Amino acid sequence: MELTHFIWLVTKALLMIAVVMGCSAYAVLLERKVAAAIQWRPGPNRTQIPIFGGLPIIGRILTRIGIFQPVADGLKFVFKEEPFPKHVNTFYFLLAPMVAFIPAMTTMTVMPFGVYTNEAGEAAPLVLANLDIGILFILAVSSLGVYGIVLGGWASNSKFPFLGGIRASAQMISYELAMGMALLPVLMWFGGSLNLFDIVQGQSAHMFKWTIIYQPLSAFIFLVALFAETNRLPFDMAESETDLVAGFNTEYGAFKFGLFFVGEYAHIIIGSGVFTLLFLGGWYPPFFTDALPEGWIGSVLSVLIFFFKVLGLVFFFMWIRWTLPRFRYDQVMKLGWERLLPLAIANLVAYAIIIALIAQIQN
Fold it and tell me: How many domains does the structure of the chain reveal?
């Protein structure tokens, strides 16, 4: 029985890795299509696979969508010649992409993505490891991803990557504080629980129970900090092309660059998932009270609802990137320290008082 359970856990882990890797690959395609739509052009619409040559209509439709483009990109990263500058610090230069990639793959183990009814007839999460400190684990491990950027910038022994690494570390410190402060009122609202499944269950009745309704300022601060933590425009200081060439990954190419790339999109997907769990009711639909049916149908429906909420947030990330201009570095620091952090502290104090008053009235 123990061996069967272990095999089942390994199978689930491999499936989750495959899903997140696949979603990261197709998030690149989605980004290119979103950019193309905003800039009034078609985007990737030429890449084909010969096997579909005998199915001209289907093959043409899939090609126009660009469905084969991630396959071509992945093969290019794998088979492209590996550039290896002589002036780099070899060991850390090779280690950096893995350090940036692994935390994103690790955090997904504690992120629930659906619900099912167990043998006791109780609601249980679809998750690899249902930790009581799930959100703390995600914040702790995901913050390690910045070490890959810093390490890559330092190990490149080049001024532009080095400046990108310094910017990434300063930005992480600046916005991690605001993110943590924005999260504390949410945890207090749900009785101090750090378990993501319990937080979602507290929002299960209907959309007016979602945290974003009761704590819009916490959601706003968390989302802005999430943009900064994932190095997305307008906060992409670590790879600012206008003044740092390509920032921390200037000296990288081929497979190593691909790891950085996939790690960035994996962080976006995981961050969107965490925001969905904390503020958008997780896998519960917005307009119906406890609408999920029992059995496998309800489980599949919960996963699909969660997926489409995350997809909507990922699209929002991309929409912002291709709409807003990049901030200056001093503006990014000023926003983090002089705007978001005081706002997050004031928000924390206000909700601490509100929650204490509600508890007093209920007693």
Answer: 1
Q: Which residues contact 25 (CB under 8 A, 6 or more apart)?
A: 70, 73, 74, 262
**Across-strand partners of 115?**
125
How far is the C-alpha of 294 from the C-alpha of 287, rounded, in Å? 18
| Sign for the pseudo-dihedral over CA of 105, 135, 337, 322 | positive
Q: Residue 286 domain-assigned?
A: yes
Residue 30: inside a domain: no
What residues contact residue 211 under an 8 Å CB cut-off, 6+ apart? 186, 189, 199, 203, 218, 219, 278, 279, 280
Residue 307 lies in a domain: yes
Q: What's the Cα-to-Cα distance from 352 to each of 123, 138, 185, 229, rounded to whole Å? A: 30, 24, 7, 26
Cβ-proximal residues to 80 (8 Å cutoff; 6+ apart), any chain = 253, 254, 255
Nearest-Å Rg of the Cα atoms of the chain is 22
Q: 304 lies in which domain range? A: 83-362
With beta carbons less than 8 A apart as the criterion, state whether 210 and 202 touch.
Answer: no
Q: Report pTM.
A: 0.91
Burial class (CB in 10 A: 0-12, 13-18, 19+), 156: buried
| Residues 178/266, Cβ–Cβ less than 8 Å | no
* β-bridge mates for residue 116, sequence order: 124
- Which DSSP helix (H) or strand (E) runs through 115? strand 115-117
Q: What is the pLDDT of residues 171-216, one digit of tens each?
A: 888 898 999 999 999 999 988 888 999 999 888 767 788 999 989 9
pLDDT tens string 88-129: 888 898 899 888 888 888 888 888 988 888 777 778 888 888
Question: Which residue type does 230 have?
Answer: T
Contact 40, 34 (CB under 8 A): no
